[in-house]
Specification:
The protein is of the alpha/beta class. The chain has one domain. The chain has 5 helices and 7 strands; from the N terminus they run E-H-H-E-H-E-E-H-E-H-E-E. The C terminus is likely disordered.
C-alpha cells in the first residue's frame, strides 16, 4: 500500500493576519522585489481571501541517495520539490499565484505544473484558479495567459525602482487585471 503524500502547508496565515502581512518587509522565501509585488497584490486584493500560504511545496522531489545521512536525504527531497510562491483561498477553492518581476511565457508552464501536482496530492480539491502577478509583461504573453485561463495582475513600481510597493494596477485588458 502506497503512503499518502505529505501535504505541505507552507507558511500559513489567516485573514485576521492581513494587516500584519501588509506591513511586512519580506515574505517567506521571497526576494525583496517579489515581496513588494506580493504586498501590492495583497493591498489590492487581499481582503477577498480567507487564507494565505507562502512557499507551498508540491511534487515528490528528487529521490535521495540512500548512502547519505537521513537529514541530508530529507533536505534533498525538500529542496528539490516544486515551490508555489503563494496560495490564497476563497472558501474551499485555492488560487495558485506565481510572482515574477517580468511575467514571461515560462509562467504558464510553472502554473500548469503546480496545478497538476496540487491536484495529484489533493484528489478531492476543487480546480484551483491560476494567477500571475508582476511588474511588467508583453502583449503576446498576456494574450496567451488569458487564453489559458490565467489571471494576470501587473503593479507599477514606486519611483521606477522595481522594488518598492506602489499599489497601482497597470491596465492589461479585460479579464487579465480584473
Amino acid at each position: 500500500m502506497e503512503a499518502a503524500p505529505v501535504i505541505d502547508e507552507g507558511y500559513p496565515f489567516g485573514n485576521q493576519d492581513l494587516a500584519l502581512l501588509l506591513i511586512r518587509r519580506a515574505y517567506p522565501e521571497r526576494t525583496d522585489d517579489e515581496s513588494a509585488i506580493i504586498r501590492d497584490f495583497l493591498l489590492a486584493r487581499g481582503a477577498q481571501y480567507e487564507r494565505f500560504q507562502f512557499s507551498v511545496r508540491v511534487g515528490e522531489g528528487t529521490p535521495p541517495d540512500p548512502a547519505h545521512l537521513p537529514a541530508i536525504q530529507l533536505a534533498t527531497v525538500w529542496n528539490s520539490k516544486k515551490r508555489i510562491d503563494m496560495v490564497v483561498w476563497q472558501g474551499p477553492r485555492a488560487t495558485i499565484v506565481e510572482v515574477k518581476k517580468r511575467i514571461g511565457p515560462g509562467v504558464l508552464g510553472q502554473l500548469r505544473t503546480y496545478r497538476l501536482l496540487w491536484l495529484l496530492e489533493r484528489p478531492d480539491a476543487l480546480e484551483p484558479r491560476l494567477v500571475a502577478i508582476g511588474r511588467t509583461s508583453d502583449p503576446d504573453t498576456l494574450r496567451v495567459l488569458r487564453a489559458e485561463g490565467v489571471d494576470v495582475y501587473l503593479y507599477e513600481a514606486a519611483g521606477g525602482d522595481g522594488g518598492a510597493a506602489a499599489g497601482g494596477v497597470l491596465p492589461v485588458g479585460e479579464g487579465a487585471a480584473g
